[in-house]
Amino acid sequence: MQLAGLEVIVIGGGVAGLAVSAALLQRGASVILVEQAGGFLEVGAGLQISPNGACVIAALGQGEALDAAALRSRAVVLRDGTRGAAVLRLDLPQTGPGFHLIHRADLIALLERACTGLETRFAAHVTDVSLSGPRPSVTIAGGETLSADLVLGADGLHSVLRDALAQKRAKPFFTGQVAWRALIPCDPGARLEAHVFMGPGRHLVSYPLREGKLRNIVAVEERKDWAQEGWNHPDNPAHLRAALAGFGGPVPDWLAQVEKVWLWGLFRHEVAQRWHADRAALLGDAAHPTLPFMAQGANMALEDAFVLARRLESEADIPTALAAYQAARKTRVAQVVEAANRNARNYHLRPPLAQIAHLALRLGGRVFPDAPLRKFGWIYDHDVTRT
Question: Which of 89, 106, 154, 244 would bridge with 16, disulfide CB 3.0–4.6 Å?
């Protein structure tokens, strides 16, 4: 199908929304992006872009921009939280697409640069989506209505379009875990590695950002008391320090430097049963929210965007293309979501199981050092730009 002149409305200006806008604009479509914030927000913290996501960024013409804005990660090091000692080191490939550490605002900026010709509507809260009639339409608070040949929902967990698809949602449930995120100054010369400090019922992930000037911190704790969903809720840094009390290595010093911290509750959401209508489709978290324990949320959004644009280009009409898009994506994202669900448990083992598991990791790492990376090769080596 020729996309030249195709009119598309994209709801949401995050990674998924900008990536699909860029992919469609490259193919000649006309895109209006509707974002409820006043602009592309310079907020967030660190993201890990694995090779499967980096392939998409390169296909959008931003491979060099990714290399310039991000740090190429050299390794993932699993550590015993209490002592800080290394349990397993996974050296990452330094050729090919690679693993990148990037601030979310920098990723948003480079995706925005890929969106030549994009029309934007900021401070535009979508209150309703109508899928009846020959062209779907969206209504913005204040009463303005926009219509197009195709509407795409990249509007996250509480997607207006997902509701418009008349799906009965299972109520999300609290996983019994909360997460904090923070940024602190990074020591000069810090290794370009992601470190995971594992402890009973809690863990901390940290890596450098922005030319090594910042250090990203994400910490997770199991608890009975739930916290509100969404990642922009400020918290007291003392709560973070209390949750990680007893952790060793560099962790106490890092946490002592935290001045601002955000807390959010981790909730499990089901993958949407139906991602599309005849002229509307979901992508990213709107279709398949995932927990952060495989660092694949942004990567899955990038994959969705490319596959959706390519299906629209290759199929005879929009409804056929959208059905093919869901068929191509649903099984994979469900498997990634489940892998993330399992990984949380692996980081939070308690004695004596933790000591046994750590010993097995150490021994296995000596005999088969690349085995853990190969275990998830089905995620990282998948290249949607070639399939």
Answer: 154
Task: Tell me which of 2.40.50.1070, 3.50.50.60, 3.40.50.720, 2.40.420.20 is the CATH number of domain 7-73+96-171+269-345.
Answer: 3.50.50.60
Angstrom distance (rounded) from CA 379 to CA 381: 6
Q: Which residues contact 375 (CB under 8 A, 6 or more apart)?
A: none
Q: Where are the domains of the chain?
A: 7-73+96-171+269-345
pLDDT digits over 54-88, tens only?
999 999 999 999 999 999 999 999 999 999 999 99
Phi-psi region of 156 (alpha: psi -120 to 50; beta: other; left: phi over 0): left
If you ran DSSP here, which 8-state letter would residue 285 be given? G
**In 3D, which of 232, 184, 176, 231 has the Cα closest to residue 208?**
184
Closest CA to 273 of 171, 379, 165, 174: 165
N residues, the chain: 387
Sheet strand arrangement including 46-49: 46-49, 100-103, 71-72
Tell me if 379 sits within 8 A of 50, measured CB to CB.
yes
The C-alpha torsion from 376 through 196 and 217 to 288, rounded to 10°, is 30
Cβ of 163: how many Cβ atoms within 10 Å?
13
Residue type, 106: D
Residues classed as catalytic: 207
Tens digit of pLDDT for each residue in 207-257?
Answer: 999 999 999 999 999 988 766 666 568 999 999 999 999 999 999 999 999
